[in-house]
C-alpha cells in the first residue's frame, strides 16, 4: 500500500501531528513529503505545545541543580522550569525497567532519560558499575541484548513456562508434576490463535516478566557491561529488526542499532501484543514524546538548510 497523504489525513493522530508541524514550521515550507518521510508520524502523542513554548524561550534552569538546559536536565532526570511536570505525559508500563548507563556515555546524548521523565514510577537509571544484584529475582527479569542465547519477545511465555515446569519438577520427585503445565501451554496456544484480542484469564503470574534491563551505552561499552557477573544467567531478549530514527546514530553502526528510548518503546509494543496478548492502542506512544519532537525539529532544520 502506498503511503499517500490522504490515507493519513483521515487519522486523528496525523491531524494532531500536522498541527504540531505547522507550529514548528515558519512559513509555507511544510510539504506532504516531509510528513511521509517521518516513520514516527502515526504515534498518539500528547500535545507538543509545552515543548514548543519552551523551545521558543530557549534554555531554562534545572529546578534541582540550577544548570541551564533545554527541555530537561539530563543529570537530574527532571524537566526544566519552562516545562512543568504536569504538562508532560505520564506513561504506565506493564513492568519495571532498569537502565544501566555506562559512566563514559555523554549524558546529554542519551535518550535513556526520556524513559525516566515519561514513566518515572517504572523506570530506574543506574550508572555502571553501581547496579543491583539480580540474583534472587532472576526468574522474572530479562536483559534486552542480542546475544547468542537470546530469544525473541514472542518466545518469552514459552520460556517462562518451561522455567515454572522445571522448578516444580526440581522440588518434587514425581515426574508427572510437569504435565499440567504442558497441558496448559497447549490450551493457551489454541485460545490465542482463535481469539487474538482475547485477554487470557489463565495467564499466570509466573509467565510474565516483572522487570527488563536495558543497557545505555555505545556498542563497545555494552560489551564490557554485559560480561559483568551480576548480569550472567539472565534471560536475554533480542528485539525485532527496526530502523532507528535517532539523529545521533553511531557512525559505522547499522541503522538498526536503536537508541535506548526506541528500544524500550519497541520492546513494550511487542510485549503488550505477544506476551500480554492485548491489542495495542498507542498506550506507550508517549514514551517517544521528547524523541519524536526533537526528531521533527532536527529534520525540519535540515530540510530548511537544504541538506536533504
Ligand atoms: Zn539538574
UniProtKB/TrEMBL annotation:
Domain DTW: start-end pairs: 69-303
InterPro entries in the cross-refs: DTW (IPR005636), tRNA_Mod/Golgi_Maint (IPR051521)
Cited SMART domains: DTW (SM01144)
Regions that span the bilayer: none
Subcellular location per the Swiss-Prot or TrEMBL entry: Nucleus
Reaction(s) this enzyme catalyzes, per UniProt: a uridine in tRNA + S-adenosyl-L-methionine = a 3-[(3S)-3-amino-3-carboxypropyl]uridine in tRNA + S-methyl-5'-thioadenosine + H(+)
MF terms (GO), sorted A to Z: tRNA-uridine aminocarboxypropyltransferase activity
Name of the top EC class for this enzyme: transferase
GO biological process: tRNA modification
Main location: nucleus
Name of this protein: tRNA-uridine aminocarboxypropyltransferase 1
UniProt organism field: Chrysemys picta bellii (Western painted turtle)
Annotated GO CC locations: nucleus
Assigned keywords, A-Z: Nucleus, S-adenosyl-L-methionine, Transferase, tRNA processing
A UniProt-annotated Pfam family: DTW
Family to which the UniProt record says this protein belongs: Belongs to the TDD superfamily. DTWD1 family.
EC number: 2.5.1.25
Amino acid at each position: 500500500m502506498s503511503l499517500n497523504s490522504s490515507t493519513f489525513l483521515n487519522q486523528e493522530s496525523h491531524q494532531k501531528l500536522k498541527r504540531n508541524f505547522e507550529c514548528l514550521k515558519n512559513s509555507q515550507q511544510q510539504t506532504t513529503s516531509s510528513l511521509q518521510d517521518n516513520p514516527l508520524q502515526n504515534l498518539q502523542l500528547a500535545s507538543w505545545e509545552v515543548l514548543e513554548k519552551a523551545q521558543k524561550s530557549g534554555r531554562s534552569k534545572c529546578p534541582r541543580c540550577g544548570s541551564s538546559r533545554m527541555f530537561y536536565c539530563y543529570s537530574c532526570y527532571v524537566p526544566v522550569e519552562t516545562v512543568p511536570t504536569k504538562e508532560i505525559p505520564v506513561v504506565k508500563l506493564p513492568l519495571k525497567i532498569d537502565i544501566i548507563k555506562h559512566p563514559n556515555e555523554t549524558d546529554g546524548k542519551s535518550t535513556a532519560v526520556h524513559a525516566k521523565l515519561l514513566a518515572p514510577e517504572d523506570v530506574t537509571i543506574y550508572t555502571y558499575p553501581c547496579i543491583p544484584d539480580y540474583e534472587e529475582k532472576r526468574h522474572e527479569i530479562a536483559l534486552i541484548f542480542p546475544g547468542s542465547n537470546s530469544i525473541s519477545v514472542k518466545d518469552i511465555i514459552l520460556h517462562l513456562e518451561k522455567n515454572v515446569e522445571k522448578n516444580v519438577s526440581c522440588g518434587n520427585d514425581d515426574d508427572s508434576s510437569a504435565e499440567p503445565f504442558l497441558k496448559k501451554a497447549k490450551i493457551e496456544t489454541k485460545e490465542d490463535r482463535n481469539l487474538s484480542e482475547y485477554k487470557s484469564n489463565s495467564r499466570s503470574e509466573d509467565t510474565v516478566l516483572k522487570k527488563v534491563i536495558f543497557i545505555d551505552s555505545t556498542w563497545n561499552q555494552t560489551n564490557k557491561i554485559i560480561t559483568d557477573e551480576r548480569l550472567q544467567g539472565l534471560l536475554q531478549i533480542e528485539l525485532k529488526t527496526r530502523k532507528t530514527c535517532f539523529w545521533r546514530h553511531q557512525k559505522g553502526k547499522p541503522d538498526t542499532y536503536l537508541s535506548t528510548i526506541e528500544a524500550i518503546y519497541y520492546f513494550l509494543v511487542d510485549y503488550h501484543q505477544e506476551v500480554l496478548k492485548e491489542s495495542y492502542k498507542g498506550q506507550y506512544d508517549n514514551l517517544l514524546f521528547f524523541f519524536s519532537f526533537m526528531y521533527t525539529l532536527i529534520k525540519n532544520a535540515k530540510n530548511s538548510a537544504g541538506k536533504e
